[in-house]
Sequence to fold (878 residues):
Amino acid sequence: MKASDAFVKRRVGQENTSVESAASTQAAPGSAQTRGAQPLAFTVVGRCPQTAARAGVLTTPHGAVQTPVFMPVGTHATVKALGPDDLRAVGVSIVLANTYHLLLRPGPDLIAAFGGLHEFMRWEAPILTDSGGFQVFSLGHLRAVSDDGVRFRSHLDGAEVTLTPERVMEIEALLGADIILPLDECPPYPCTPEEGRTATERTHRWAERALAAAHRPDQALFGIPQGSMDAELRVASARFIGALPFDGFSIGGLSVGEPKPVMWRMLEAVIPELPDTKPRHLLGVGSPEDLLESVARGVDMFDCVLPTRTARTGGLYTASGRLNIRAARFRTQREPVDPTCDCYTCRTFSAGYLHHLLRSEDEGQRGELLYFRLASIHNVRFLIRLMDEARAAILEGTFAAFRERFIAGFTPPDEQIRDEQRRKRGAGLTAPSPRPDAI
Amino acid sequence: MKASDAFVKRRVGQENTSVESAASTQAAPGSAQTRGAQPLAFTVVGRCPQTAARAGVLTTPHGAVQTPVFMPVGTHATVKALGPDDLRAVGVSIVLANTYHLLLRPGPDLIAAFGGLHEFMRWEAPILTDSGGFQVFSLGHLRAVSDDGVRFRSHLDGAEVTLTPERVMEIEALLGADIILPLDECPPYPCTPEEGRTATERTHRWAERALAAAHRPDQALFGIPQGSMDAELRVASARFIGALPFDGFSIGGLSVGEPKPVMWRMLEAVIPELPDTKPRHLLGVGSPEDLLESVARGVDMFDCVLPTRTARTGGLYTASGRLNIRAARFRTQREPVDPTCDCYTCRTFSAGYLHHLLRSEDEGQRGELLYFRLASIHNVRFLIRLMDEARAAILEGTFAAFRERFIAGFTPPDEQIRDEQRRKRGAGLTAPSPRPDAI
Fold:
């Protein structure tokens, strides 16, 4: 990775003793025209005869990933409560990290000085970084958006930050993920047709600028189709983004509080317009049933904080649904949460012990620390296994039945409650406040 | 363990399918006279020629323990942030659990229904339970103390609880630890000579009652000499308790805010009065230097929340002292906290990453969850290694030099700060408020 090291070295301006000097034979970090180097390969190795589901293999500089795949979210360069040892033990093959949070703390230059995100968090397998677009629009304060980019105040310390498509590429180059995303604008939910169009158009311009910006040849760039909840706009965006020389596609702006049937309709509008031979990532999804329904519609990759976040508040997955380990009925249960699960938690501990740990609250402690690790191990393993089994079923030609069986047996939490949770996740997007034009 | 299972069964009054019916050939849970069964063996296998330090082997129903040994504290049936897998990985051989906390939540009957504490927390190695005496006097509200026992209100829900020496033995039988402690009264610090004598006398009466109470033949009982900070009273208590048929001794009422030289003087008064061939446990100690200084004075076993608690707030041990990983200078450190340490944390992560994790505070999060596990792993491993190395030095005849070298290189946090921390731990003991006599 000589050219990329040289790029990082120039940016950081410091010696990295393990980096060799840039070889002149490498292609310069390039524009769309020079994206001849292949930092990512994707091969579809099996297809479901009844649905749009595919099984694939994604190859990156840090290793291969079998798809469909669930990617836990490592917001602050750590998947909450889980060390790399835990992640490996449950079969995680790729994680997502948030550019927005890492930009604010500890900062991309520091991470680059540590040799990049893989080295910093000691995760030597693939990493995907999102662009920060979603968090800027949901977390940042005093946003000013223009065609140039977005300006906001850090929610941590109020410092003013400007992000442009070019700056985001720079930041992601310093972080060094295998797959990176361009700056996009996610429209609020709900939004007016005008807001939806403006955000989508801007996303398209920014996509072009990201492709034209300098970037590392060892990083794959995924495009982000938007389109709000307008099927026509969704089709147009997917066509436009889909025609650009991206290595894959991360579908944005869904699961932001819209009713589930709307989400499926949008997904069904988007997928056929994306190149079949490139991977499709559905941003911010999701629950077990959402994963399977999305796989059935042609999605290959997922990321979501829900499984780990709900684990920490007591929501643990089983094939029959999401139980709440805080409930009194678990107090005396000697069996594990999920007797069919092979994770460390279910192999080792009773549900009653987990109940006890989480209910051990006092003096500012929301539960015993061990609980959060054990619960997160279980929920992540559950989703990894679900995707592994889905993949095996796709290869066997039995995915449609597999999905039907799982959905029939799995009772999701109340639909209303879930919509509320999704709305909370997209909190900043729901306020239809007027937005300043100029940066 | 048929007699013990029968004992538990009668108490709990419920079926335990894995328990065989009591065999009549077993000795009944007995009084001091029938303490012929040996639930614990202790052998001194080496002695320091220059100091009172010894190396030993403690054998319990759940396995052997090499001494000197540090026992992490598993307050709520978990050592905070560490799973049994982590404990095993860092070489922990025995843990301490708090009867007071487990009595209040989840309760001894529930734990017995789960097969006992070992099974509940899935720690299949030795466990020592303290009696709750210290916590009652430091945490409980509206205490009424009499020769009968102590009455208090749970700090959790205000429920009124009465503890007598007999009740404590019952509770500890249900918990099922390998080593148990009798109810004692720890005098406040500071205290009047009268208060010191009253508490010590009461501890002696309660010790006799504990020995006379029904208890499991597979549990070892340690006696607790008290005596406040009066050397004569300490000698008298050590002689009295030391002459009783306890299996070992847990020295109480030290490290409660007294100046360090006073603690050493008390320890030096106590140790010679205890049987040389039985193990000595120093309750609530402590820091690395305190461990070595106590080993030099003849202590075999230690327990303390300090190493894990200070880890969680950034205090990490190295041979040169306790650093604070929050400090700005660690932000850019690529090396581990302790390059000589073999724990998972030091083998894997940079100090800068730990700094980042702990400094990732927001919205009610005091730092990333992964930090607390990694930091606790390190500090516990540090103390385990320290005791292992001390033991090896004792066996080689080089302990005096080992201790001197370590103490010379290790700079403890400011003495004043430490005294304050100790006073905080014994908070309830410092208020010289009048105490009701009657229960």
